[in-house]
Amino acid sequence: MTVQPFVSPDLIRQRFSKAMSDMYREEVPLYGALMELVEQTNREVLARQPDIARQLDSTGEIQRLDMERHGAIRVGTATELATLARLFAVMGMQPVGYYDLTPAGVPVHSTAFRAVHEEALQVSPFRVFTSLLRLELIEDPELRDFAESVLAQRSIFTAEALRLIAQAETAGGLNESEAEAFVLQALETFRWHHSATVTAAQYQTLSAQHRLIADVVAFKGPHINHLTPRTLDIDRVQEQMPAHGITPKAVIEGPPRRQCPILLRQTSFKALDEPIAFTDQNQTRGSHSARFGEIEQRGAALTPKGRALYDRLLNAARDELGDFPNEANAARYNALMAQHFGEFPDSVEGIREQGLAYFRYFATEKGLAAGGLGQSSLEDLLRDGYVKAEPLVYEDFLPVSAAGIFQSNLGDAAQAHYGEHSNRQAFELALERATIDELGLYAATQQRSIDECLSRFAR
Ligand code: OOG
Ligand code: NI
């Protein structure tokens, strides 16, 4: 008997991402319309701005652009979260970062499962923003007990998915046929269900406490609630959405429009109410809205210094606005953001000289032709044009933006005030492992590219 080799986790993730996209396109017709709009806009940008095309080509991002998606799910128990971590690990995805959404009145805390090495990200940048409901924040003990008992009865993984996860863990990987089965089985966890696990009245009670609680507790599984493509021009897509029958939220989250994109800009549109059958109804008579659409534009990953500047400018603009950004104050918000962010350098050189972002260093054509140069410093190589610096793309999320996305899809009524805040320790206890610090990952990628450049020319 020949032993079949393992399929690399990166390829399993690439296949899973494709399968998820196909499933979502079938389930949510607007997703298909949005994907077309984003693909068309990206083509236009690349044709109109050859410098962007060149930059994406030299970093390799051009090859992953069309594959680029992030999804989001919300789970209800520690066991669900810990098992998800094991499921994602089969696909080479690790929990990166900790996000606390309670300051924004959303009773969850979250992490992002994603690949961590630049080479793995290149094969598939697929990531999933994963939130754990904080049931301890439900004040009514009766409702909390009810929610806990409903969650305790469900299993969000198929038996076969659990078996394949265990198999991958003990054997150290999955072979071709196991990997194929795994993708299909894992997909089931993220599927939409038209029937709820509670009665219509129970759903109402949960929803009255917080719409998000109903979304997590009342269903068989953590349906994927959006799948977000990456656009090269978010303002243009936002502008064009209405003509395609899509109504975007009032403002784009994140930094304002700039020459040199930083971090992450996002916008979303509300999904329609979807028909649901509650357990006391034979046919679908109720409804629930959970699924929405979102697009994003990614820019440079900021260093702690750059991030502190970003946070300060964002807070200053928001403080001056004096309210959550909304339809009525959108124009003023955009003006305030542009005004405050005038302080943030907007050229690659300016950002690099002030140490505001992480970079990757590449040998230029001149550098490739030159070969060994003896001992030169990185700054020498840059100055003489042997090496060029490209901003490292941000692979993570932003808590203020995430809160804005949650809010716009839950409605303003969803704003609550929680006394208890950030609890990373409790989150990691539930996850059964620590979350990875994203800044360390960016610094490591940057360092690897510096080492490679220096060793190339040191000969
Ligand atoms: C997640 C919202 C956050 C993002 O892109 O910041 C998010 C959710 O609604 O479950 O997806
Ligand atoms: Ni999102």
UniProtKB/TrEMBL annotation:
Signal peptide residue numbers: none
Keywords: Dioxygenase, Iron, Oxidoreductase
Top EC group: oxidoreductase
Cofactor: Fe(2+)
Documented EC number(s): 1.13.11.93
One Pfam match: HGLS
Keyword Transport applies: no
Claim: Iron is one of the keywords in the record: yes
Family membership: Belongs to the 2-oxoadipate dioxygenase/decarboxylase family.
Protein name: 2-oxoadipate dioxygenase/decarboxylase
Protein's organism: Pseudomonas tensinigenes
Lineage of producing organism: Bacteria, Pseudomonadati, Pseudomonadota, Gammaproteobacteria, Pseudomonadales
